[in-house]
Structures are given as C-alpha cells and as structure tokens.
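This follows on from our talk about sequence and fold. I would like you to pick a protein and set down its sequence and fold. Go ahead and set the record down below:
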Amino acid sequence: PVFDYTTRTSDQNDIYSYGYAFTSSDLDGAVYSLSEVFPDMLRLAEVEKSCQLMA
C-alpha cells in the first residue's frame, strides 16, 4: 500500500492548526518536529503494512 497525505493549505509553512493565545512555544517546536518526520513515518507505515501482508 502507498499512503498519501495532504495539508489543509498548499503553503508548506502553514503547519500550525491551533490558536496562539493560550499555547506555549514548546507546542510550536513539537508540531514543527512532527512535521519534519511525518513523511518518514508514512514511509515506515507503508513498509510495515507491506511486511504484514507478505507474512
């Protein structure tokens, strides 16, 4: 299987889908870190599912 994802906007810098009023900067860092590894996580899920289907 091949997984594909889309973001809500085409702007690669628009990864923050929450309000800024009551959040700390730690959340910004966590969301940014997750957005960097997300493509690798999808690829890992593809490989894992393929291995499960072959077993």
